Amino acid sequence: MKRTKIITVIAMICCCVAASSINAATIPAGTTIAVTTHSLITSQDAVGSTFEARVAQNVSVRGNVVLQAGARAFGRVSSSRRNPRRSAPLGVELTSVSVNGRRVAVRTSSVEPHGPPQTARTARYGHTAGTTVVNPRTRLQFQLLQPVTL
Question: Are 142 and 44 in contact (CB under 8 A)?
Answer without folding.
Answer: no
